[in-house]
UniProtKB/TrEMBL annotation:
Gene Ontology molecular function: kinase activity
Pfam family, one: Phos_pyr_kin
Recorded metabolic or biological pathway in which this protein acts: Cofactor biosynthesis; thiamine diphosphate biosynthesis; 4-amino-2-methyl-5-diphosphomethylpyrimidine from 5-amino-1-(5-phospho-D-ribosyl)imidazole: step 3/3
NCBIfam families linked to this entry: HMP-P_kinase
Catalytic activity: 4-amino-5-hydroxymethyl-2-methylpyrimidine + ATP = 4-amino-2-methyl-5-(phosphooxymethyl)pyrimidine + ADP + H(+); 4-amino-2-methyl-5-(phosphooxymethyl)pyrimidine + ATP = 4-amino-2-methyl-5-(diphosphooxymethyl)pyrimidine + ADP
Record has Transferase as a keyword: yes
SUPFAM superfamilies reported for this sequence: Ribokinase-like
Name of the protein: Bifunctional hydroxymethylpyrimidine kinase/phosphomethylpyrimidine kinase
Domain Pyridoxamine kinase/Phosphomethylpyrimidine kinase per the UniProt entry, residue ranges: 13-257
Organism: Dactylosporangium salmoneum
UniProt lineage: Bacteria, Bacillati, Actinomycetota, Actinomycetes, Micromonosporales
Keywords, ordered alphabetically: Kinase, Thiamine biosynthesis, Transferase
Length: 267
């Protein structure tokens, strides 16, 4: 049987923990073929982001055109769109309907210097085409212009973002510092629902957001509806964080275990 193809559009993470590297690991773990469009090269390790090098928009659109003219893409996930120009060019492809089952992780913290305000405006052109939007609380705050903090705020924010076009919005709460639960809020079909899972206290969570969004895209490609895909992805990312809890890869926040390697005894 041929593997399903999922396309990820985002940044290369030199530490391997997040970005395209996490997306492609997630797809391989889920036995899907990952195609990738590189929007930025990020020089970083587990401790810090040293620099972000946006790729020229023409380089991004050439990769996208080449993939789309040949591969049977069943779902798409976006991560870093580093400049407003690149985001607007990708939005134009979305408008043609060429990017099915579209999951957008609106990564704003790793945008090119000075690009944030223009990017927030560019996301307005993307939102109408989105199947599932996965901002964390900070990204939701930036997109909406008010502070999203409590679970009640997350529900209100998800509804406001959904009114701008996405069929489903999940506001992730991985950054809640306290508490025993990792709480996300999902808005779909006119109602908000809280998703709870045990909060794992390990040192490694790099790539959680990327893995979560990519797993949603993979499940959409496999035929799940959006709420089912989101619930499944939350279980998947929780297991991957838990399995990597004791890893020591680098001196800071390390990668997570999409493959379940920690369960293997081979060394
Ligand atoms: N320590 C943790 N324990 C369990 N789940 C977590 C933890 N950190 C993040 N998650 C889950 O990982 C997914 C990604 O969330 P989050 O870390 O908020 O994204 P981002 O990396 O974009 O900020 C969410 O489903 C969230 O609940
Ligand atoms: C190349 C690259 N670096 C960092 C990120 C950060 O993504 P974010 O969703 O903020 O967090 P995690 O996925 O690391 O939990 C990225 N998307 N790409």
């Amino acid at each position: 049987m041929e593997p399903t193809v999922v396309l990820t559009i985002g940044g290369s993470d030199s530490s391997g923990g997040s970005g395209l590297q996490a997306d492609l690991r997630t797809l391989a773990a889920l036995r899907m073929h990952g195609a990738s469009v590189v929007t930025a090269v990020v020089a970083r390790n587990t401790r810090e982001i040293a620099d972000v090098y946006p790729q020229p928009t023409t380089v991004v659109t050439a990769q996208l055109a080449s993939v789309l003219e040949d591969l049977p893409v069943a779902a798409v996930k976006t991560g870093i769109l580093p400049t407003p120009e690149t985001a607007v060019a990708i939005a134009a492809r979305m408008r043609t309907g060429a990017l099915p089952n579209l999951v957008v992780d609106p990564v704003l913290t790793v945008a090119a210097a000075g690009a944030r305000r223009g990017l927030i405006a560019a996301y307005e052109r993307i939102l109408p085409h989105v199947t599932v939007l996965t901002p964390n609380r900070e990204e939701a705050s930036a997109l909406l212009g008010w502070d999203v903090f409590t679970p009640a705020d997350m529900a209100a924010a998800a509804a406001q973002l959904a009114a701008r076009g996405p069929r489903c919005v999940v506001i992730t709460g991985g950054d809640f510092a306290a508490g025993t639960e990792a709480i996300d809020v999902v808005w779909a079909e006119g109602t908000a629902r809280m998703l709870h899972s045990p909060r794992i206290s390990g040192r490694n969570t790099d790539g959680s957001g990327a893995t979560f969004a990519t797993a949603i895209a993979a499940r959409l490609a496999a035929g799940d509806d959006a709420p089912a895909a989101v619930s499944w992805a939350k279980g998947f990312v929780g297991r991957a964080i838990g399995d990597a809890a004791d890893w020591r890869i680098g001196g800071g926040t390390g990668p997570i275990d999409q493959f379940g390697w920690s369960a293997l005894t081979l060394r």
